Amino acid sequence: ATKVPSALQNTQDVEGYFYESPSGGQAAFWTCAEARESKLHTHPFDEYMVVLSGEYTVCLPEGETVLHPGDEFVIPAGTPQWGRCTAQTRTIHAFGGKRI
Predict the structure, then answer these.
(1) Which one of 24, 33, 36, 61 is least enclosed by Cβ atoms within 10 Å?
(2) Predicted TM-score of the model (pTM)
(3) Higher-pLDDT residue of 11, 44
(4) What is the mean pLDDT of residues 39-49?
């Protein structure tokens, strides 16, 4: 019931599930079976992410940051972003608003 519909994903062919808190914030749990790149997008709220396995490269206009298991990153609201992940990457993203 909480599977993220593919039309709401910024990365093709990833599997995602979400949780919505009573206050309206959401968390998404993503698994990327194959190496992928997400499309350029922004959110009207802050985004916090942590890598559980694999490797995720956060791409922002000012540069790229490679994240490994245990690494965390915060993307401020309104920041243009995209990313790349290696096969078998798993991440958790917490949003300061309704993403899905």
Answers:
(1) 61
(2) 0.85
(3) 44
(4) 94
